[in-house]
């Protein structure tokens, strides 16, 4: 590789950053100024010129997408790279997982190497179970997830009193014990426990166990306290720090990042500060408009000419807009614009549904970036429980759920399932004790069916049979006799079978790629599937594929397209209604991030008759903040016949009930957000039952059931949406067409 040539392509600011060798350096970069470019050049510089092995670098990103991009770009430059060399490259969580698995002594804290990683929702479920069993007094249980997040720091600081004077800290203590007993980590635990063990390494002077030479951080503006502490430990262990970020792109304060982060980092690490002020991406007009939303002052220079002005469109509603966009995109395609250069951004995932339907009808190739995890697909949700218990017998709750699932498996009562699993666990423990005492005892295995399968799994697949038989999903599928447990008489059977089959294929490929034994590979996958969620099960949008990209503003971060359409710039959507100034600031930065993805053409639109509840008709004030000289010909109204809209709406409602399978395992197609697709469609759709509406009219609040959130009460309802309150999940909104709620 010719590094001189690489360096020559950088501007003076970028070069200075790449060549900087201070013990700590923070690069405060402007949007589109080449942060990713610099980060990759830095890694190459250290490796090629300074002879730092990749294994001695920890490269931390905030998303798997960013980590993937860095890996890809490195692989493109150096084809002989192996996954082992890049084990320290990834998100904070995946690097912490690697440390806990391969470097730090977790067993000294009582965990076992086969630990699993659970999603926040699973932690809440566990917490609710403890509350019930131990009769704890917890206020605002419907906001438990938020409360656990918000008050965790107080608890960790050793505070005695919770915010509401209840048993929350007792719960946190018990939750910690229970997770340890079940050998489980949450995402936050991964970093928390890593921090604890790294601190101990430092205190005990055992730095030789782990001492990276460099720590390189992308999007550093998104770091929260626990992540900063993680960086700090690595620095104390001897690593030099190089971090890049943009204070104008802080869009995750709800996760704990903060807007004064650069000042904080400079103070904490005594870092040198460099800047990258030149935006290479956007035309002059786009950049000038985006600057109206920039919150942190400072030079933002564009390298490009003024280019085309922005456009603002007014639509009757989202249905009309979708038709307009389809026609517009068709026109662009005919004029030679590649589909992959066109993107539509929206504020909420649910806004993609109408676009998907219309684009499918109009044969516009598209891909939707959907945040959907394995847990959103009922059959996989069940099968994961089966696998979790099969691979980790300490995870008794998973075993109970696998047996007591309402749709799959043996469909036992919760009580009976608990009894069975408890007896299995006791029996195993007993057998273990007898084995270590005398050799004479015989296992009295009375269990059969799924229980027997789960308990025998680890033993059955114990030897490393990866190369022989486990290249075929059928082997595991048949082992569990899944044809029996997936209920072949159900209408969804063939779809479910395909889901499971695909999951198994993925797991096997994953184990093979990792060069791991079967069991070990499966265990690692079970952790990663929670950790990576979407990425493992569902292809991210393929930026190279020639299709229009549909995504939320959040998902657009870090990407660029020649043509960008930001839709629904109405108050209530962009910006969302917020309760405080800080969140409002974040909404503004989010809009800034979206606008600055556009290279050549940016169009913004709003509705005069929005369908969503709590969305105000008319343009949001954000549109009024853009100087009119940057906008082509004022606001243009786009009209569509109302009859067309009604027909279209009916079609969307009809077709939205069938969700193409392809998109879940790659490929384009329709998809729903995690929240909206958490369960199977119910038989009786809300809005289609006369009694439902009648009850509302007479002031009674109808009760509904949702597959994931349980029983709730409708709080409001309009033509398209329905809002319901659930005891443990708070208020949730649903699109009626998806029929997820069943009236009780
Ligand atoms: N020195 C340069 N000369 C010309 N183009 C450049 C240069 N550096 C970066 N670019 C181009 O500028 C665009 C933005 O670069 P990059 O994606 O690295 O920016 P970024 O700072 O990571 O963006 P964002 O702020 O959106 O995260 C890319 O198209 C990249 O190829």
Automatic annotation (TrEMBL):
Pfam families in alphabetical order: UvrD-helicase, UvrD_C
Region (Disordered) residue spans: 428-448, 668-699
A Gene Ontology molecular function term of the record: DNA binding
Keyword Cell division: no
PROSITE patterns named among the record's database cross-references: UVRD_HELICASE_ATP_BIND, UVRD_HELICASE_CTER
Alphabetical keyword list: ATP-binding, Coiled coil, DNA-binding, Helicase, Hydrolase, Isomerase, Nucleotide-binding
EC number from the UniProt entry: 5.6.2.4
Residues noted as binding ATP in the record, renumbered to the chain: 29-36
Gene Ontology biological process: recombinational repair
Catalytic activity: Couples ATP hydrolysis with the unwinding of duplex DNA by translocating in the 3'-5' direction; ATP + H2O = ADP + phosphate + H(+)
Sequence similarity: Belongs to the helicase family. UvrD subfamily.
PANTHER family: ATP-DEPENDENT DNA HELICASE SRS2 (PTHR11070:SF2), UVRD / RECB / PCRA DNA HELICASE FAMILY MEMBER (PTHR11070)
Protein name: DNA 3'-5' helicase
Protein source organism: Hespellia stercorisuis DSM 15480
């Amino acid at each position: 590789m010719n590094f001189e040539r690489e360096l020559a392509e950088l501007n003076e600011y970028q070069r200075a950053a790449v060549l900087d060798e201070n013990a700590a350096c923070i690069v405060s970069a402007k949007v589109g100024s080449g942060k990713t470019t610099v980060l990759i050049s830095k890694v190459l510089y250290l490796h090629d010129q300074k002879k730092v092995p990749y294994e001695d670098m920890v490269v931390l990103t905030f998303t798997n997408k960013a980590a993937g991009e860095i890996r890809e770009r490195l692989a493109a430059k150096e084809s002989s790279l192996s996954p082992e060399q890049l084990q320290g490259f990834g998100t904070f969580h995946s690097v912490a997982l690697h440390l806990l698995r391969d470097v730090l002594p977790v067993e000294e804290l009582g965990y076992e190497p086969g630990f699993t990683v659970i999603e926040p929702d699973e932690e809440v479920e566990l917490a609710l179970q403890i509350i019930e069993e131990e009769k704890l007094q917890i206020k605002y249980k419907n906001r438990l997830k938020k409360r656990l997040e918000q008050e965790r720091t107080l608890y960790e600081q050793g505070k005695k009193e919770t915010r509401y004077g209840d048993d929350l800290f007792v719960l946190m203590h018990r939750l910690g014990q229970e997770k340890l007993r079940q050998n489980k980590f949450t995402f936050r635990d991964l970093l928390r426990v890593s921090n604890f063990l790294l601190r101990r390494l430092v205190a005990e002077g055992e730095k030789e166990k782990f001492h990276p030479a460099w720590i390189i951080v992308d999007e550093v503006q998104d770091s929260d306290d626990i992540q900063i502490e993680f960086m700090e430990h690595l620095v104390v262990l001897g690593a030099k720090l190089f971090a890049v970020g943009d204070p104008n792109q802080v869009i995750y304060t709800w996760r704990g990042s903060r807007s004064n982060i650069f000042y904080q980092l400079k103070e904490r690490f005594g870092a040198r500060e460099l800047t990258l002020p030149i935006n290479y991406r956007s035309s002059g007009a786009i950049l000038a408009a985006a600057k109206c939303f920039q919150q942190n002052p400072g030079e933002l220079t564009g390298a490009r000419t003024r280019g085309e002005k922005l456009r603002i469109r007014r639509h009757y509603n989202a249905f009309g807009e979708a038709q307009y966009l389809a026609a517009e995109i068709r026109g662009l395609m005919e004029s030679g614009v590649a589909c992959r250069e066109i993107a539509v951004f929206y504020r909420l995932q649910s806004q993609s549904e109408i676009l998907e339907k219309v684009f499918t009808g109009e044969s516009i190739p598209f891909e939707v970036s959907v945040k959907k995890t394995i847990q959103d697909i009922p059959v996989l949700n069940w099968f994961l429980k089966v696998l979790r218990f099969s691979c980790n017998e300490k995870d008794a709750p998973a075993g109970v759920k696998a047996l007591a699932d309402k749709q799959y498996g043996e469909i036992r009562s919760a009580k009976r399932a608990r009894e069975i699993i408890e007896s299995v666990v006791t029996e195993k423990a007993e057998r273990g004790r007898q084995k270590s005492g005398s050799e004479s005892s015989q296992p009295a295995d009375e269990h059969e069916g799924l229980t027997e399968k789960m308990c025998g799994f680890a033993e059955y697949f114990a030897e490393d049979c990866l190369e022989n038989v486990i290249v075929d999903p059928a082997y595991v599928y048949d082992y569990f006799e899944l044809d029996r447990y997936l209920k072949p008489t159900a209408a969804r059977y063939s779809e479910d079978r395909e889901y499971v089959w695909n999951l198994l294929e993925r797991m096997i490929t994953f184990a093979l790629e990792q060069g791991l034994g079967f069991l070990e590979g499966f265990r690692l996958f079970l952790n990663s599937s929670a950790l990576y969620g979407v990425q493992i099960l569902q292809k991210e949008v393929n930026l190279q594929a020639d299709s229009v990209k549909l995504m939320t503003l959040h998902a657009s971060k870090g990407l660029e397209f020649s043509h960008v359409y930001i839709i629904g710039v109405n108050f209530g959507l962009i910006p969302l209604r917020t309760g405080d100034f800080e969140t409002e600031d974040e909404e503004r930065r989010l809009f800034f991030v979206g606008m600055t993805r556009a290279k050549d053409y940016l169009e913004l639109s709003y509705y005069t008759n929005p369908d969503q509840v709590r969305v105000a008709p008319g343009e949001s004030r954000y549109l009024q903040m853009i100087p009119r000289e940057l906008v082509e010909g004022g606001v243009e109204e786009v009209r569509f016949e109302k009859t067309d809209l009604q027909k279209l709406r009916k079609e969307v409602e009809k077709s939205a009930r069938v969700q193409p399978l392809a998109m879940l395992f790659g490929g384009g197609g329709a998809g729903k957000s995690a929240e909206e697709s958490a369960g199977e469609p119910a038989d009786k759709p809300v809005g289609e039952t006369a009694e439902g509406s009648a009850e509302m009219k007479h002031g009674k609040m109808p009760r509904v059931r949702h597959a994931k959130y349980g029983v709730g009460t409708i709080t409001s309802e309009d033509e398209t949406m329905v809002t319901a309150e659930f005891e443990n999940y708070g208020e949730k909104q649903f699109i009626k067409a998806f029929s997820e709620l069943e009236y009780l």
